[in-house]
From TrEMBL:
Gene3D superfamilies: NAD(P)-binding Rossmann-like Domain (3.40.50.720). PANTHER family: 3-OXOACYL-(ACYL-CARRIER-PROTEIN) REDUCTASE, NADPH-DEPENDENT REDUCTASE BACG. InterPro entries: NAD(P)-bd_dom_sf, SDR, SDR_fam. Belongs to the short-chain dehydrogenases/reductases (SDR) family. It holds the Pfam family adh_short_C2. It comes from Actinomadura logoneensis. This is SDR family oxidoreductase. Transmembrane segments: none annotated.
Length: 257
């Protein structure tokens, strides 16, 4: 299936590992020019080298903490200047610490909102003028299933990331007619470093245990590439009439309508 991404210029934050890296790889396969950003220079270099070896493509890299608004803007401007345009932006950052609401004071909530909402908005706002200028654009903000179905032990995630849904909905109406879409990807338990870092022993058995405890009907956690496949579709020309949505990818765990 041709996703209509050949020749598009994409920026993928959090692109050195996990879901972000899987999305970046998909975009490269589809012919897009890709720049990835992340906080760890070593992991970025490893991701760049793996993509070059596996897919025969060169991706740009930028060491960046997404909370650095000026740094995010500079990444967008430099990428657009180098390649003549910017069409796709994927905002993706780590999640806040786990725990119930009573485990955190006001500063903890401020930090969570800064990471889980404001950082995403800053990157998107920096990219929007380029998407409008190109006349074609895709915005994808990677959040969590907690945006749709609250999990009490991940209170900060639910509180901070819920704002992205409201931002996406209002931004869609502000953008008006045209071919620029805005969507939120809300993955559930996924086999990323954040999850696997706490697992020991047989990986399959451990992830199945996590799935059972979380109540995932499919009996396992997601693979990053499974989540990325949904995200890549939302970034594609095929999804031209899908905008303002929150797309949950959680193996059926959520019982919300």
């Amino acid at each position: 299936m041709d996703l209509g991404l050949d020749g598009k210029v994409a920026l993928v934050a959090g692109g050195s590992a996990g879901i972000g890296l899987a999305i970046a790889r998909d975009l490269v396969r589809e012919g897009a020019t890709v720049s990835i950003a992340g906080r760890d220079a070593g992991r970025l270099a490893k991701a760049r080298d793996e993509i070059a070896a596996d897919l025969g493509a060169v991706v740009g890299t930028r060491v960046l903490d997404l909370r650095d608004t000026d740094g995010a803007r500079a990444w967008v401007e430099d990428t657009a200047a180098e390649h003549g345009a910017a069409h796709i932006v994927v905002s993706n950052a780590g999640g806040p610490p786990a725990g119930p609401t009573g485990a955190f004071g006001p500063d903890g909530f401020r930090d969570a909102v800064e990471l889980g909402m404001i950082a995403h908005i800053g990157l998107v706002q920096a990219a929007l003028p380029h998407l409008r200028r190109a006349g074609w654009g895709r915005v994808l903000m990677v959040a969590s299933e907690t945006i749709r179905d609250i999990i009490p032990q991940f209170a900060l995630s639910a509180i901070a990331r819920s704002g992205l849904a409201a931002y996406a909905k209002t931004l869609v109406h502000e953008l008006g007619p045209g071919d620029v879409t805005v969507n939120v990807l809300a993955p559930g338990y996924t086999a990323t470093d954040a999850l696997l870092g706490g697992l020991t022993g047989d990986l399959g058995a451990e992830t199945a245990r996590v799935a059972a405890e979380a109540g995932i009907p499919l009996g396992r956690v997601a693979r990053p590439e499974e989540v990325a496949a949904v995200g890549t579709f939302l970034l594609s020309a095929r999804a031209s009439f899908v905008t303002g949505t929150v797309q949950v990818v959680d193996g059926g765990r959520s019982l919300g309508m």
